[in-house]
Write a structure and sequence with these properties.
CATH topology of the largest domain: Rossmann fold
Number of helices: 11
Radius of gyration: 28 Å
CATH class of the largest domain: Alpha Beta
Distance between the termini: 101 Å
CATH architecture of the largest domain: 3-Layer(aba) Sandwich
Strand order of the largest sheet: 7-6-8-9-3-10-11-12-13
Number of domains: 2
Order of helices and strands: HEEEHEEEHEHEHHEHEEEEHHHEEH
Shape: elongated
Length: 369
């Protein structure tokens, strides 16, 4: 029989439940985004991506924006202070700082455990030191890159131990900064939102989970990355395709607002539509295809035309049913398009005058030296 003196009492855990009408008045700061949709003050975000696939590169570009504030991947970035706890050498970060002009608002803690796995006490001491630094300097972001290399041994594969290590990070986030955890995926196929290596406790713990993968094989030269996100918040973009530009200075967004890949301009189609005074059907486009080029497959062209029209790269009219085929033209070119045989003579003459003025202007443009 248990000793009554050993049982917890109500004084040890007083309850303070809230009713729905009281939730809005609870002393909880409003959600404040550091990187809109992905990183928020007082929240934990996990970025899951294979090794050497661009996690640190993405984080570096975010750090560069945090000096003046700005945008990353067309999403607002607020100015602020950050610290990066990294497994990489100081020389690696020095090169990135020079390349991206990272400011003095960023601090680095490189290889804090000197390449060894910490024990529990060392891990908790590290988080306590980060809390102290935040209280002293007011951090807006804490980056752990990567989580697995800095955790105590076996914590990754044991859910209770993993949670023991993560809870102090939640306490750190509650003080104000966003916490961004870089982690690696498990081997083999896993369900969406559950790709994190180890016990899976991290995916359930984080407020926002970003899963980033190469659009093609990692060994290819394709610089595009697909980001799928799982979040508690509607502001989080669920699908995003990013591409690091040629000089490595910025990310280009390759998806629309719904996550559909953006259509690249098809030069032959653009040339055909630029040099016609009619709205053209798919068949007419194929008939006018440049003779020096092999025409595309009808289904390939059809898919491109539909996606380009949805993303307003080109315009589309018609219902697509028999007798009312889809017709395509370039945005802004409407004044130069034939008004139709049923138009009034005045409209037809106005069209002729517009075309004459347009082409006369082209021919009269001065030739640059």
């Amino acid at each position: 029989m248990h000793n009554a003196t050993q049982l917890p009492s109500i004084q040890d855990f007083p309850l303070q439940p809230l009713r729905p009408s009281e939730l809005a008045t609870a002393k909880e700061p409003l959600l404040s985004w550091l990187w809109h949709g992905y990183l928020a003050h007082r929240k934990v975000t996990a970025l899951i991506s294979p090794p050497k696939s661009g996690k640190t590169t993405l984080a570096s570009h975010l750090l560069a924006r945090m000096g003046p504030g700005g945008q990353l991947a067309d999403l607002a970035v607020a100015p602020g202070r950050a610290i990066v706890v990294s497994e990489e050498a100081t020389s690696d970060w020095d090169a990135r700082c020079r390349q991206l002009a990272l400011g003095q608002n960023i601090q680095f803690l490189c290889r804090p455990f000197q390449g060894a796995r910490p024990n529990d006490a060392q891990w908790f001491a590290l988080i306590a030191s980060l809390e102290a630094l935040h209280r002293q300097e007011g951090l807006d972001l804490v980056v752990i890159d990567p989580l697995a290399a800095l955790l105590p041994g076996y914590a990754e594969t044991c859910a209770p131990m993993m949670l023991d290590c993560l809870l102090p990070l939640q306490a750190l986030a509650n003080l104000g900064p966003a916490v961004w955890l870089m982690h690696h995926p498990a081997k083999g196929k896993r369900a969406d939102g559950q790709t994190a290596r180890g016990s899976g406790a991290l995916s359930g713990f984080a407020d926002i989970v970003m899963e980033m993968s190469c659009l093609r094989r990692a060994r290819s030269r394709d610089r595009r990355r697909r980001v799928c996100a799982y979040s508690r918040y509607v502001a989080t973009p669920r699908h995003l395709i990013l591409e690091l530009n040629a000089d490595g200075a910025d990310y280009l967004v390759r998806t629309d607002a719904t996550g559909t890949p953006l259509v690249q301009t098809w030069p032959e189609v653009h040339y055909i539509l630029q040099n016609t005074t009619d709205k053209l059907t798919q068949q007419k486009i194929l008939e006018r295809w440049p003779t020096e080029e092999d025409p595309p497959d009808r289904s390939t062209l059809s898919r491109w035309l539909k996606r380009a029209a949805r993303q307003r790269l080109i315009c589309c009219g018609g219902s697509g049913y028999k007798g009312d085929a889809f017709h395509y033209w370039l945005p802004g070119r409407e004044p130069l398009l034939w008004p139709g045989r049923n138009a009034s003579e005045a409209d037809k003459q106005a069209w002729r005058d517009r075309c004459a003025a347009h082409y006369r202007g082209l021919y009269e443009q001065p030739v640059s030296a």
